[in-house]
Amino acid sequence: MRLSLYASAFVLALGVSAATTAHADENFKNLKVLKNNGKDLEKGMKAISKGLGVKCTACHVKGEFDSDKVPAKDKTRAFFTAVVGEKDQAKKDAAAAELIKNVEGAALKDAKAVWEGVALLQKQ
Ligand code: HEC
Fold first, then answer.
1. Which residues of 15-38 are buried (b: 16+ CB within 10 A; e: fewer)?
2. 43 CB less than 6 Å from ligand 1?
3. I need a labelling partner for 9 at 20 to 30 A (CA). Which of 1, 20, 63, 124 fits?
């Protein structure tokens, strides 16, 4: 009886870990601030780009999202560190003002989209 209980717990655990792996299907390689939360990370990136009025290439080498060759990317890590999970809007606004100075061509075109994007991100 006890053995079969352990056996079913084991099977259950296997099932749960398989389900978790299926969701974390994005193979990100160079996250230093953000957690790999799969599709939400990409949705967040899209909303932030739209809000700043820039393309992904403002921070990324085309097709090599893990590369750190574009200096704006590392500057944006400081932004994410400051704003992800932060509730104080004044602090978030100050970080956004700093961010747009560091990202070529960026402006706060649609602040709502930026903060919606940030809300999809999680820190490690
Ligand atoms: C304003 C700068 C900025 C823009 C614009 C931006 N990103 Fe990012 N992105 C980052 C930063 C910073 C990281 C690294 C975060 C970390 O280290 O935790 C990142 C990481 C990523 C990663 C993870 C790469 C890996 O393997 O580690 C992907 C995928 C990604 N971005 C996709 C996109 C897409 C798609 C767009 C356009 C829709 C985009 N990003 C626009 C700043 C930006």
1. eeeeeeeeeeeeeeeeeebbeebe
2. no
3. 124
Rounded Cα–Cα distance for residues 46 and 34 (Å): 15
Give me the tens of pLDDT residue by residue for the chain, a chain 124 residues long. 565 656 555 555 555 544 444 344 578 999 999 999 999 999 999 999 999 999 999 999 999 999 999 999 999 999 999 999 999 999 999 999 999 999 999 999 999 999 999 999 999 9
User: What atom of ligand 1 comes closest to residue 76's alpha carbon?
Assistant: 12
Cβ 35 vs Cβ 123: under 8 Å: yes
Tokens 């780009």 — which residue? 49
Q: Evaluate the CA torsion angle 81, 85, 91, 96 in order and state its sign.
A: positive
Two tokens at 81? 């560190």
